[in-house]
């Protein structure tokens, strides 16, 4: 199955929705392969593999899984000569699978050598990620940073200058601490760290432009693990530049903690119009799917009304009226169904990602919520008649009964999509 290009999605009507609080921050537009980041483009969802890049097949498969889940950019680790040599074969495998997601190379200590010694890697990557805090020290840092920027210029590649508080440039930090100590009213240590993060990003971007990299080839990020630190740093950074900004906590954590922390930080910034591409850096549960971070990023943007990716399923939380777990099982089943069907629906139909569904557990709010959704079902609660009315666009259409309600409602959803949304291509 071919994964549609981000540019096709935009041209076919899935434009970024208006931010509830006002307009997006104005930035330059950076092209990463066929994906636009910044300007009026939608906020882009991206993710990163956790496979060994040297394992070409496994890495290509995970890249495809992430892309099919909705990751519009995928980053891979390039840390050894063997990993650099694997990048072009990974790209070839993805092309063979019909997955055209742009690949980003994540470089750190030896990126200057890997890019210079592996031109195929430098050529097929759509963007390079450079951390100015660990490209070297002193004179070597300047030379090695310059070498990576020169290679980006040679191959006309954009660069994300990604500052991380776990690897902050110690010389720059010492300089800012000394400057702060000389002030009549010095700032506290937290403020100094935040200023050092922003200064590192801005000074590195200025150095890259001085070397010859165009300003519309630069994206910035300042990754930290604290919610309040992230909000403060990005507010400052957004006031001081017009580069597109990549948002994300650097180590969000596992499970609900990681989801809540990422959402708490990024939602505030996105509501203020700050942020042009996001990554939710979740630590997967043992054996868990890497694609979870893509789902969380999409749901964050869709819940905020910034983009639409897949039909949203509304379900009540349950109470003493809903002692049966059937409505929970049906809600999960429908959620899984629409996510599994969405890759094909996206190809076949215009606007299906905006559909809303309701799976409700009793008569109190069930019919009302079902009427507000495009399609909804109100299941019987404790002591209610064993009947489940279905509503489509506010009108009651049928009442389901018996042991096959789940299968029948799923079929109704598929039928609703087929007759409601305009087809893009003929069904083969």
TrEMBL record:
Catalytic activity: (2E)-4-hydroxy-3-methylbut-2-enyl diphosphate + oxidized [flavodoxin] + H2O + 2 H(+) = 2-C-methyl-D-erythritol 2,4-cyclic diphosphate + reduced [flavodoxin]
Keywords recorded for this protein, A-Z: 4Fe-4S, Iron, Iron-sulfur, Isoprene biosynthesis, Metal-binding, Oxidoreductase
UniProt remark on cofactor binding: Binds 1 [4Fe-4S] cluster.
GO biological process, one term: isopentenyl diphosphate biosynthetic process, methylerythritol 4-phosphate pathway
Cofactor: [4Fe-4S] cluster
IspG TIM-barrel domain: residues covered: 27-298
UniProt xrefs under Pfam families: GcpE, GcpE_C
Residue positions binding [4Fe-4S] cluster: 316, 319, 362, 369
Annotated IspG C-terminal domain residues: 313-414
Pathway connected to this protein: Isoprenoid biosynthesis; isopentenyl diphosphate biosynthesis via DXP pathway; isopentenyl diphosphate from 1-deoxy-D-xylulose 5-phosphate: step 5/6
UniProt-annotated stretches for the region Disordered: 1-26
InterPro entries: Dihydropteroate_synth-like_sf, IspG_bac, IspG_bac-typ, IspG_C, IspG_TIM, NO2/SO3_Rdtase_4Fe4S_sf
Superkingdom of source: Bacteria
A single GO molecular function term of this UniProt record: 4 iron, 4 sulfur cluster binding
EC numbers for this chain: 1.17.7.3
Enzyme class: oxidoreductase
Biological function: Converts 2C-methyl-D-erythritol 2,4-cyclodiphosphate (ME-2,4cPP) into 1-hydroxy-2-methyl-2-(E)-butenyl 4-diphosphate.
Homology family: Belongs to the IspG family.
Protein name in the entry: 4-hydroxy-3-methylbut-2-en-1-yl diphosphate synthase (flavodoxin)
Gene: ispG
